[in-house]
Amino acid sequence: MAFSEELREFAATVSNWGRWGEEDQLGCGNFLTAEAALRGARSIQSGEAISLAVNLDSKGIQVGQPAGRVNASLSFSSLHERDAKAPGIWLGCDDLFTMSTCAATHIDCLSHISYDGLLYGGKPKDLITAEGATWCGAETLKPISTRGILVDLLRQEDADILESGYSIDAADMDRAYELAGLEPQPGDIVCVRTGEIRDYFAGNRYKYAVGEDGSSWQKIGLSLSATKWFHEQDIAGAFLDNYHYEVMPPSTGNWDDLLVVHMIQLRDMGFLQGQNWNFEGLAEACHRDGRMDFHLVAVPEPLVGATSAPVAPVALR
After folding, report:
1. Which residue among 48, 152, 226, 276 is least enclosed by CB atoms within 10 Å?
2. d(CA 2, CA 5)
3. Whole-model pTM above 0.90?
4. 317 touches 45 (CB < 8 A)
5. Does residue 304 contact residue 138 with C-beta atoms inside 8 Å?
6. What does the pLDDT look like over 224-274, one tens digit per residue?
């Protein structure tokens, strides 16, 4: 089904096509300036470093929906061996590692989603082939060094758990900055804690990925309202501690618009997004110290031609 005229008008209002030139592949990564990095660095007070990644594990987040995504798999190409031509008594091990690029904590590349046959910047989707993406592949993602803001919805809603299908909107973003005593700045990245990843850590990875009853169609996530707010504030990206990223059912109320937030953010805005981030330790530290900002450092793996990139982000407090 095609987008409604209303959605097309919305996409046009948040589009960044041509904003940084016709050959731009960074999108909102352009907001990750030296000034944004210094703003992030000024958030560091104690020097505490908190990992925002989940472990890479053969029994990880993926449960087969969508089909084809696989968890991490580790094997050895050499085990307690030494090159016979090399001197010495040393023995070494070398590993082999495979996984889907979006299996665990990751960033979606701007090539990850298309519609109407087009990618970010109006480029044809045929620039992605079985050989990889020649437009907006993972190698084009900019290293992230900026101010991060924790949007802790559980604290904001004074709830232990959010209702399934909770739609994260612009008001939630405004409230997070108000509680932090800060103003949005270009290049900020919001890290949204829904609490859903606690299901994964509790051993219920099936519920985390596809829902209690095996259906993935009632999930907490970002709405088009939040998407417009990101555009208005020149936010560089948003990362969530859940599997789906966007609200389900779609915020339009029309199931034909499934993944509408992904489509508009990636294809039209060039917005940085990612899922399966872990904000549990960060939330504890933020509320202990009464500060919701931090220096976010995240370098996506530069996998040439990939459409998602694994990442091991760190919050520096």
Report:
1. 48
2. 9
3. yes
4. yes
5. yes
6. 999 999 999 999 999 999 999 999 999 888 888 999 999 999 999 999 999
